[in-house]
Amino acid sequence: MKSLENIQEQHKEEQLETNDAIIIVEDLEKSFASNHVLNGFNMKLFSGENLVIMGKSGSGKSVMIKCLIGLMKPDRGVINIMGKDIVHLDQSSLDELRADIGFLFQGSALYDSMTVRENLEFPLRRHRERFGKNIEVDHMVLEALESVGLAHTVDLMPGELSGGMQRRVALARTLIMKPKIIFYDEPTSGLDPITSKEIIVLMKKIQQQYKTSALIITHDVDCARVISDRMILLVDGVNYAEGTYQELIKVDDPKVKAFFK
Amino acid sequence: MMLSEKSIGSLISSFFKQIGALTFFAGHFFKEAIQPPYEFNELLKQCYSVGNRSLPLVSLTGFIIGLVLTLQTRPTLQEFGAVSWMPSMVGISIVREIGPVIIALICAGRVASGIGAELGSMRVTEQIDAMEVSGTNPFKFLVVTRITATTLMVPLLVIYGDVLALYGSFLVEHFKGDVSARLFFNQVFNALNFSDLIPAVIKSVFFGFAIGLVGCFKGYYCEKGTVGVGLAANTAVVMSSLLIFILDFIAVIISDIFYDL
Ligand SMILES: Nc1ncnc2c1ncn2[C@@H]1O[C@H](COP(=O)(O)OP(=O)(O)OP(=O)(O)O)[C@@H](O)[C@H]1O
Ligand SMILES: [Mg+2]
């Protein structure tokens, strides 16, 4: 059995060598009144990798990812995404950067007063110019829906879809912008094991097809095993352990072991 | 005794805190409303939805108010031999006071609660966050359009309700007193002048603004959970109704000052 420190050291060295981190998070802190959620969280996401962040419910995973996308302001710390300092970016540059980042919300967050088509067209409202003057919006919508296997739902309302289908439509909505990075906030939460597996397979397929990097938040061990290139365990607001799935399951530490029961 | 004093104190202080936050929200509205881009399509949609939500109820109530008011005052006027004053009396009381207040209260019940629940559920299911991430300013798209829509539509609904109320009143006069339409409406319009109409319309504009403002405020800052959505809808009705009475009181004082001059 390897000790936790050993793995940590080894990864530090690897990270010093590779210099193509597209997201760098340093000393992230965030509290709500007396509730200290993040206490100095550090993270790097490298180009092309799937990084899984695992943590218990309520450990601050959603808070962390919302700080990354600029929906919450951290109390302290550095967040650098593709060379831009997120915390101090003005609104229009932030919007510009967000167009390169897909965000899959924990509960899908489809606009329930709009059809599937309108949902997918919505992100294009502000970012049309990215795709040139004469873009075929209809074509883009169908292409994104096809890549999640739901082209036939284009004129339905979100309320008429099952939870798993909603999650896939939400995924299509992030894909339509052709993002370079995708943030997944618990992509399999609230879904049955079979549907979860479908989503995971889809995520893998998308990564190969669109060549994205991904930050995946989950407490689903199966999801982590299949999808992760590297993992970070978030405990008490800090990155408690880092490594590949195979490395971490061998670690002899009670808090780490608790994740893989 | 101590307890009740304390709770009254905290009630009053929370009331003023709410008013402060609401004022701040209104300031934010004006700032965002002035700056482009403008969401005209969404504004039209919201205008339609405000009208659509309240038209049946406004029609029915307007008509019944006219009917009842006339039926109830008729015996008294008859006693003094002053039935011929009926059209002018009903006209003035409906246009100046009863029409705007009752119709605004109906809109508070229908529209403010609808907006509170709608935005509340969008907040809870992270749709507002999703909008922000996709580069559309949710405050502009959701709040500015809704407040503008109620500000425009409530005065129109008030005028429409007034007309129906007068028609209801005419029907009573026609069947009980054999008054012709021409005579009735001639008398109504002789009794009314611009100094009755203009303040009533201005007042209705403020009522409409208050309805949209409170509905959006409650929904936009909705607490997490389904309980929060219900609460947002409920408190939106209570608070906007209260505001309507306060605004009406202020309007009466102001128009009284002008009347004296
Ligand atoms: N807007 C907020 N205001 C106050 N506290 C908050 C807010 N958002 C999150 N929290 C608190 O931060 C903590 C972490 O919440 P978060 O949603 O990040 O958990 P999570 O790790 O995503 O859990 P889950 O797996 O259940 O989604 C919780 O204790 C929560 O109460
Ligand atoms: Mg979460």
From TrEMBL, chain A:
Superkingdom, natural source: Bacteria
Classification via SUPFAM superfamilies: P-loop containing nucleoside triphosphate hydrolases
Any GO molecular function: ATP hydrolysis activity
ABC transporter domain span: 23-261
UniProtKB keywords: ATP-binding, Nucleotide-binding, Transport
Record PANTHER family: INTERMEMBRANE PHOSPHOLIPID TRANSPORT SYSTEM ATP-BINDING PROTEIN MLAF, PROTEIN TRIGALACTOSYLDIACYLGLYCEROL 3, CHLOROPLASTIC
The protein's name in its UniProt record: Phospholipid/cholesterol/gamma-HCH transport system ATP-binding protein
Pfam families: ABC_tran (PF00005)
Alphabetized InterPro entries for the sequence: AAA+_ATPase, ABC_transporter-like_ATP-bd, ABC_transporter-like_CS, P-loop_NTPase
Coiled coil: none
Protein's UniProt keywords contain Transport: yes
Keyword ATP-binding recorded: yes
Lineage: Bacteria, Pseudomonadati, Bacteroidota, Flavobacteriia, Flavobacteriales
From TrEMBL, chain B:
Keyword Transferase on entry: no
One function term, GO molecular function aspect: phospholipid transporter activity
A Pfam family annotated for this UniProt entry: MlaE
Membrane-spanning intervals of the chain: 12-30, 50-71, 197-217, 229-254
Coiled coil: none
Claim: Zinc is one of the keywords in the record: no
Family, similarity comment: Belongs to the MlaE permease family.
Protein name: Phospholipid/cholesterol/gamma-HCH transport system permease protein
Protein source organism: Zhouia amylolytica
